[in-house]
Amino acid sequence: MLFSSPTVNATGPKANRIDLFSFSTPQMRAFHVTWLAFFVCFFAWFAAAPLMPLIRAEFGLTKDQIANINIASVAVTILVRLIIGPLCDKYGPRRTYTWLLLVGALPVFGLAFAKSYEVFLFFRLCIGAIGASFVITQYHTSVMFAPNVVGTANATVGGWGNAGGGAAQSLMPLVVAAVLSLGVEQAFGWRVAMFVPGVAMVVMAFVYARYTQDTPQGDIVDLRARGIQIEGGKKGGMAIFLQACRNYRVWMLAATYGACFGVEIFIHNIAASYYVDRFGLSIANAGFAAGIFGALALFARALGGIASDRIAARRGLDGRTLLLFGLMLGEGIGLVLFSKADSVALAIGAMALFGLFTHMACGATYAVMPFVDRKALGGVAGLIGAGGNIGAVAAGFLNKATDTPQQTLLILGLIVAGTSLCAISVRFSAQHKSAEQKLLDAALAMRRTETDLAPAPRATTGLA
């Protein structure tokens, strides 16, 4: 059976370094498999977005119908993200991710069979559940890595996974072109292309079940059955969720995540169509331009996590929130510049600028997340993640209410700049800081000990 036994043996404490080219430990296997699974999920989530000009023509969609489709693609994610965090606490990320991949593949395949706007809208709504994969990704690395590198680990796997959105923007038009070159009709070509992300999700489900484990000590369900307390709490479920709800820091970080990740999702949905409609680019060229924004996730989100870990080494938790404030402010300014760009070159330059700040802010947000409440980790991760999708839905409704996308982008820029104040409102008590500092010191001491005992220098990447 899929979950008949743990996939690997327990190996002890959290990892205090990131050995990027190592697959020998459960921590690094979880690191690599979870970002790859998230990449596949993100690719599938936005595989239809760059094909919307084709789909719009086939179904004769209006502006409001396209806006409804974009809103639907992120709306249900809010609910599923709220549920998925406590499920990780209760059943473990391995089981939760595997089932999300298997079930989430169904609406991806379903899009290929849509014959009307209503059916397409329904499957696009269901596909939004795939976005909850982010919460599992962040949960899994949070329980696998120590405080000195957890920000870097979270941001890196999140960024590399988010790059799946950019890959979808660039690659899906090419997949369609390849199918069309075989002589099939255009309406059939984009439907065949949707099988690519669907099959990839099914394959990743079996990879996740086979090559990962829940924690450094082993399987969460087995550990709890043996009476071993784990980081997420004794039972998980609704109690963890309610505990997270009572923490004001969760809501402040949910707001900041709505203003960075929400904007990221919104841009993924509209970018290709924006370049087609505003600058007259072809679908392939518009997909390439939109893909630049997604490609930034390959390094920018990780950069936000690395910067957060580095500044925390000098200024503690307050340094993490101050960095997040600065990144949010830069994102808001960049969005305003993007809305004013009147040429393709200026638009791409401005998009790259605000995109850099956006992805870094996403990484910096989840570099703070593991320190909010260790006993309610799943609930915290789920609520903050849901905030990102609430932001995306709000941006979709704003776009529907305004006259032009440029006006939407301008208003979004001002809102993001204002939301940066939520970041600096996050404060931690002296007792909380002291407890976290002890954990950090212990991780650093263990790292120094391991380095002293190592027979030869280990090949590292600079991420740790």
Automatic annotation (TrEMBL):
Membrane topology: Multi-pass membrane protein
GO terms of biological process kind: nitrate assimilation
Domain called Major facilitator superfamily (MFS) profile: residue spans: 30-431
MF GO annotations: nitrate transmembrane transporter activity
Record InterPro entries: MFS, MFS_dom, MFS_trans_sf, NO3_transporter
Keywords: Membrane, Nitrate assimilation, Transmembrane, Transmembrane helix
Pfam families per the UniProt record, alphabetical: MFS_1
PANTHER family: HIGH-AFFINITY NITRATE TRANSPORTER 2.3
Protein name: MFS transporter
Organism: Rhodoferax koreensis
